[in-house]
Design brief:
This protein is mostly helical. Helices cover 65% and strands 0% of the residues.
């Protein structure tokens, strides 16, 4: 039996040891609860079993638990310092914190794999269908809430640069090519903060569930996020292309 309310209380206790006045930590705490909600949306719309519904919510609650220690040590979201997914797996399973969130160990391998794989560029081959389901679900849920985050957080919080500098950059040609080809964007291929910004819209090319595309259609986050800023003329033209390409991809997959 998975007790989500109990798990949420334990999560609150865990996070309370970190500096909640830090904008990045606050962002990730809110993000966690919102990923629980996007997981709920997908699970309900895809008509998953109650067991998978409950498990998806627990995985969502725990998927970014490594972020808090990462931010405490480095005050950065960069996984070049430490891989937050692997750090989360260590905290939960090597330090055995997982038993404070769920009594039984029958779901441990599913939870561990889903968290470990949630931020990878691409999923490895997964033969176990239950692990595959939850690995795909948390990846979609995480990506969907990232659209919400990018709709409300400041450029300074997201990228540690001023908005003025941000809107006067240009998207690199290789990043535009990836959008044209409907490819996810490798972190190592991003050359500036606008490349990073565009890479988040490319998340649509890696969504797995019809419900995920429906969510983006309903929320209109692609349009809202791109239209948040007044870009320089050349960048505006690039961002209009990104907006149209990604929105059309969503509509084509409904």
């Amino acid at each position: 039996m998975i007790d989500i309310d109990k798990a949420k209380k334990r999560f609150e206790k865990y996070v309370s040891q970190y500096d909640l006045n830090n904008d990045k930590i606050r962002l990730k705490m809110i993000h966690t609860y919102c990923v629980v909600e996007t997981s709920k949306y997908i699970a309900i719309h895809e008509q998953l079993s109650y067991e998978d519904y409950q498990l998806s919510l627990l995985i969502a609650l725990l998927h970014d638990i490594g972020r808090f220690e990462q931010l405490k040590q480095f005050n950065s979201f960069s996984d070049q310092n430490v891989d937050h997914a692997l750090l989360g797996v260590k905290i939960l399973f090597e330090d055995n914190l997982i038993r404070e969130f769920i009594d039984t160990d029958q779901y441990d391998q599913i939870i561990k794999s889903a968290i470990q794989y949630h931020s990878l560029y691409q999923l490895p081959v997964i033969k176990d269908q239950k692990i595959l389901l939850h690995a795909k679900l948390i990846r979609d849920s995480d990506k969907l809430d990232n659209f919400r985050v990018k709709n409300i957080e400041s450029i300074e919080t997201l990228f540690d640069i001023s908005e003025e500098n941000f809107v006067n950059q240009l998207v690199s040609d290789n990043i535009i090519d990836d959008i044209k080809k409907h490819h996810l964007i490798l972190s190592s291929n991003r050359k500036n903060e606008v490349d990073m910004w565009v890479s988040y819209f490319a998340f649509v090319f890696d969504l797995n569930f019809n419900a995920s595309f429906q969510y983006l259609k309903e929320t209109q986050y692609i349009r809202k996020n791109i239209d948040r800023f007044v870009y320089n003329p050349l960048l505006k033209k690039q961002m209009e292309f990104v907006k149209n390409e990604c929105n059309q991809y969503v509509l084509n997959h409904l």
